[in-house]
Every structure is written in structure tokens, then in C-alpha cells.
Design brief:
Two copies of one chain form a homodimer. Chain A has 14 helices and twelve strands. Chain A has three domains: 6-49, lambda repressor-like DNA-binding domains (434 Repressor (Amino-terminal Domain)), CATH 1.10.260.40; 63-162 and 294-321, Rossmann fold (3-Layer(aba) Sandwich), CATH 3.40.50.2300; 164-292 and 324-331, 3-Layer(aba) Sandwich (Rossmann fold), CATH 3.40.50. In chain A, helix 7 (133-140) links the parallel strand 3 and strand 4 (145-148). Chain A has a six-stranded parallel β-sheet with strand order 2-1-3-4-5-11, sandwiched between helices. In chain A, strands 7-6-8-9 form a four-stranded parallel β-sheet, sandwiched between helices. The first copy, chain A, has a two-stranded antiparallel ribbon with strand order 10-12. Chain A has helices spanning 6-13, 17-24, 32-45, 51-58, 78-91, 107-116, 133-140, 164-177, 193-208, 225-237, 248-260, 279-282, 294-309, 328-331; strands spanning 63-67, 95-99, 122-126, 145-148, 159-162, 183-187, 218-220, 242-245, 270-272, 289-291, 318-320, 323-325. The first copy, chain A, is of the alpha/beta class. At the A-B interface, helix 4, helix 5, strand 2, helix 6 and helix 11 of A face helix 4, helix 5, strand 2, helix 6 and helix 11 of B. The first copy, chain A, binds a DNA duplex through residues 5-7, 15-19, 21-22, 24-25, 29-31, 34, 49-50, 52-59, 118.
Chain lengths: 334, 334
DNA sequence: CTGAAAGCGCTTACAG
DNA sequence: CTGAAAGCGCTTACAG
């Protein structure tokens, strides 16, 4: 009934605990016959190495840390992301340790505390920005991590991101191709990594199509549903007939704004968002948006992290393309 | 630079490591002067006990396990819930270990594996149902846990739930009071703990108001947005002018169904959901729904678990009332 | 290829 | 009230 230990296995198999350890850890120099004796015993006993005991001499914990984001940043579907991370980590024998800064603690202190407690082998980060202090901190201390977010500022960093510029290029091209004359952009204030990239994509598509950028409508606002609503009047007054938004939150706001003015989203004004949140399917007509390939992001992140942990090269930063999901908010013919 | 150990502290403070350990663990029999010497050293060194080293002799890990739900069950806003769990756990020095069954592994095996690896001190469960095998399994093995979900089937179990019957009572009363004549119920097939409770609430409110239950419209369906849409015609044909739904997903479906028939939700038919998902605020008019007090649920769960871990009585099962959030889908006067 | 032994950083009786 | 010592369950050189 009690949890079997390495001793139990060694007794049953008639070998030393060192040999059991060698088998468990896949060391090469073990006879086939010894190996199978040990494996039988392990199987019979249902043995699994105790994590704490393993961690102590080896200095590896089998744990990967993830800081619970504040919930303020809505640009990641936490649910799906975490799910994927947990599953991919599980596939290579790692579990996920969740933590959050305690009241009065800075973000960095939270990471440091986890580290000092001997908590994890490495971290998965998400939502990083320019000059991210956590990235800097971990890099300095040579703590393994992989970031969801373009960390190309730092040569050594392992990162994966979804290509926001490509996303807004796709969105804007789609709007232009469907015959829209005056395609506006609603973004966040300049200076955020994610926001600036997405703006760049809109710009590129507009220029490529020969549109006049200088006289196009560009609104830079904080993220928010109500903010989206409040922008609608202004967009209509400027003669805008399509708007590419930096986020679904803003896009859904504009859709609601249109509806409150008794206009139909997709007719008077086409709207595209970014993130493909579930609410986008639940409004009428559906919101066209950019879907982030979360499963790929997670598997690439975990892959990079596990390579670092094995002392290998994590590989280059990776930019994954988002996928345009077309729904009613852009598909009603002009 | 290297992580300080208990030895470093003991040297700096001029005491034995046993004394440092006693101070760290708040043992009573330590002189004030000794204590403060040790505390100074701890502070100076930034010492934190290594979790693995602590876990090994003490048999406690400082970790609390949570199984990543499948994502199939939409009745819990995972994001908020986990957030709250992590924060409340952090406040009492516990961190959260996330795990998921690997492919081919049953749920029970996943729990068992975490346990065998010496993974956690206890579990937080969510989304439990009648005769839940995991609850039974943990109870048999006397593994500490606290469940989000009514586990009153099992006398010893620690649980917290949101009162679904009360929720649907509130919803149905609200519909009746606002003058609706024919209040339908859309629920899941009988036999789920959560679904049955919510049905009971509708029933009670209807009977209390003297409504004829036998001739009322009751639809039992699987959860789903499209399913909600497909039900709308039938509801209208039955002369239903209000519908209390077991979930926001179904409620949002009905709202979309109404809109596709060019009807206005809240006018021709009032709609109430359950969960208060964010999409409910983003549709026009907003969806009236029942908000679950996640922060309270989390704090009560963690509180119960920590009491069990300290060998105390966890306290009785707790039923928390949801809060009716009234929006456009029911507030347009008849 | 296998095993005896040291050691990882703690906690916990037990002496003193 | 404090400290020396054993031990938690592993891994890792190192002999043999």
C-alpha cells in the first residue's frame, strides 16, 4: 500500500539500487537481462521515482514554472495555452508549477522566490514586451526559459511568437480584396511589442495595395469593449467602411457600436479582430478574426525548453503565422 | 550567488542547523535572542528552504495538485478559478501543480501517478459528478482534497459548491416577476449533479408562483451553442415567452436563434443563462446570467484543504449563492 | 557491467 | 533551549 521505493525494486529484482537508478534513467551500460529483471520489478510494484528524492542530488525538479498572468492582458487565451503547455510538458515527463506574485511582491521577486526554493527546472513565459525585465533577469542568471513573444532583442533567448504583422496583413488584404474603400486601423498606443507589429502589418498591406496611409484613419486606444463602442461614431463620420482591429475586444466593441446605431456589422462597416476568442462566434454575424495556433506555440515552447534542459541548442526564434477565420463581420458582400 | 542553504544560515547565525530549522518552522521552544539571530541571517542571505529537501524527510511537498479539465465542460470559468486558487494557495505558502492524464491514461491513473511520484500534499477537484470515481479513490486512500462541486454523497468529503437550485430560483422568479407568462426550462439530460440541481430550482420557483409545471416546456439537451439556436423555433411555436437555461452556451444560442429570425432577445422572448461568461456582456442586448462567486469558492476550497493538511476538521460542505446579473435579455419591459 | 558509499538539504526524535 | 546524528529516496562518481 505504501509507495514503493527504489529499495523495494532493487530487492525484488535482486540488484543494487544504483542499477535500478541506471535503468530508470536509461543509462546505456546495463545488460539486457538485468534491465528486464529491473523493469519487471518496477512494473510489478508500480514504482515511480519520488520527485523530491530525485531532485535533491540531481538538482532537477521535473517541474516547469508558469506565472499566472494578471488577467489584465487579454491577448492570450490562457485556457487553451495552459492546456497545451501542460499536455506537451506531460508528454516529456514534466509537470507545470503555477505561481503568482504575492501582494507587495514584484514579478521578478516571484520568479526569484520560485528559483530559490529550488522550485523548477525552467520557466515558460508569456506576454513579454520590449526590454522585459523578467527576460533580462532570467538570461543573466542563465535560468532556462522559453518565451511566448518575440524576444529577438536578446540573442540567446528561446522564443516563439505568432506573427502579428502577418496577421494584420492577411486581415487588411482580405478587407481590400472584398472591395472596401477606406480601411481603418484601431490599435493600442505605440510602444508595445505586440501592438506595434500588428500596426506594421496593416501598414504594409495598405501600401502594397497603393492605399493612401497618411489620410487613412488610425486610432490608438487602450484595449476595451466599451472603448470600441465609443469609437464607432467617429469611424462612421470619417467615412470608414472597414476596420482592422488589434484585438477582438475592440472589434467586438465596434460591432456592438454599429448595432446600437441600428447598423449591421459587415454591411455598413466590415470588422476584423485578433485572437479568435469564443465570443466572436457567439455574436451575430460572427466576427472575422485571426486565430493563433496555440497548440503549435505550446509544443514549440516546450520543445525549446526541453532542449535547453538537455544542454542542447534550443533553436532559433520562431514566428508562426496566424490563420484568418472569416465570418459574417466581413463576408457580407459590399 | 549560489542558493543559500540551511548550513550557510547556521554558520552566519552561529547556531546548529536544527535550530535554524526550528525557527523556520516556527517551533515554540526557541529563545527570542536565538530566533532573532537566525532571522537576521535568513534575511541577510535571502534564504528559503529548498522544497525538495524539505519534502523528503517531512513528507510534505508544499504543492497542491489540480488536474487540467478537458475543456469539454464549460461550466467553470477555468481562468478565474485557477487564478483564485493560485493566489489563495500562495497566501498560505502552497504552490499549484498542474497535471493532465497522458494519452491512454485514465483520470484515476493520472491522480495516482502524481501521488506516487510524491507530487502533492493534496488536490483541488472541480466539476465532480454523482458517484465520482476520483472522489471515491481519494477518499479511500485518505488523500487530502477539496472539491468544487457538491460531494455530500460522501460524509467525510470537503466541498464547496455554488447553489444551482438557488440560481435557477432567482432566474425564474425574475422572469415571472417581470411579467412573463410561459417560462420554459432548457437543461441537460437528467443525471448530472449540476444539471439536476438547476432544474430543481426552476421547478421550485414555478410551483411557488403557482405555475403549471406539467404543461410547461422543458427541453433536455446536450450543451451547445448550435443546439440552442436549433431550439428557438420550437420554443416560439410552444408559445414560450421566457426561457431559463442551464448554461450561457445554450442561452447565447437561443439569443442568436431569435436574432436569426429577426426577433429581438428580451422582447419576444426573455433569456437567462448560467455562468456569466464574458461573451454574455458582448452580445446585444447583454445576456442576463448567474454569476458564480469564484473568489469565495477558491478561498473556501483552499481553506478547507489547508485545514485538512494541518490535521484539523475541514468544516462542513458549503453552498454559496450565485448572483443574478440582469442585462438586456430580460430587462426589456414586456 | 554492477555495487558500495557519499551526499543532496532538510526534519525529527533524542540527549544533554 | 540547543545540537549531534540518523534518515528521507534518490543520483553519481568511483572501484572492482
Amino acid at each position: 500500500m505504501a509507495r514503493p521505493t527504489i529499495k523495494d525494486v532493487s530487492k525484488l529484482a535482486g540488484v543494487s539500487i544504483a542499477t535500478v537508478s541506471n535503468v530508470v534513467n536509461g543509462h546505456p551500460n546495463v545488460t539486457d537481462s538485468t534491465r528486464s529483471k529491473v523493469e519487471d520489478a518496477i512494473h510489478k510494484l508500480g514504482y515511480q521515482a519520488n520527485r523530491a528524492a530525485r531532485s535533491l542530488p540531481a538538482g532537477q525538479t521535473g517541474l516547469l514554472g508558469y506565472r499566472m498572468p494578471d488577467g489584465k492582458r487579454l491577448n492570450v487565451s490562457l485556457d487553451t495555452f495552459l492546456h497545451q503547455i501542460v499536455e506537451h510538458a506531460g508528454a516529456i515527463g514534466l509537470e507545470v508549477l503555477l505561481f503568482a506574485p504575492r501582494p507587495g511582491q514584484t514579478e521578478q521577486e516571484a520568479y526569484s522566490e520560485v528559483l530559490i526554493r529550488g522550485g523548477v527546472d525552467g520557466f515558460v513565459l508569456s506576454g513579454i514586451d520590449y526590454h522585459d525585465p523578467v527576460v533580462k533577469y532570467l538570461l543573466e542568471r542563465k535560468v532556462p526559459f522559453a518565451a511566448f513573444g518575440r524576444a529577438d532583442e536578446y540573442p540567446g533567448a528561446a522564443w516563439v511568437d505568432v506573427d502579428g504583422a502577418e496577421g494584420l496583413r492577411l486581415a487588411t488584404e482580405h478587407l481590400i480584396e472584398s472591395g472596401r474603400k477606406n480601411v481603418a486601423f484601431i490599435g493600442w498606443p505605440a510602444g508595445s511589442l505586440t501592438g506595434d507589429e500588428r500596426y506594421r502589418g496593416w501598414q504594409q498591406a495598405m501600401l502594397a495595395a497603393g492605399r493612401d496611409i497618411d489620410n487613412a484613419t488610425v486610432l490608438r486606444v487602450l484595449d476595451g469593449y466599451e472603448i470600441g463602442i465609443s469609437l464607432t461614431r467617429q469611424l462612421l463620420d470619417s467615412g470608414v467602411d472597414a476596420v482592422a482591429c488589434v484585438s477582438d475586444t475592440l472589434a467586438l466593441g465596434v460591432m456592438a457600436g454599429l448595432r446600437r446605431l441600428d447598423l449591421v456589422p459587415g454591411e455598413e462597416m466590415a470588422v476584423v479582430g485578433f485572437d479568435n476568442v469564443s465570443a466572436g462566434e457567439l455574436v451575430e454575424p460572427g466576427l472575422t478574426s485571426l486565430d493563433q495556433p496555440m497548440a503549435d506555440v505550446a509544443s514549440e515552447l516546450v520543445g525549446r525548453l526541453s532542449r535547453i534542459l538537455r544542454g542542447e541548442n534550443p533553436g532559433q526564434g520562431l514566428l508562426l503565422p496566424p490563420r484568418l477565420v472569416v465570418r459574417g463581420s466581413t463576408s457580407i458582400p459590399v
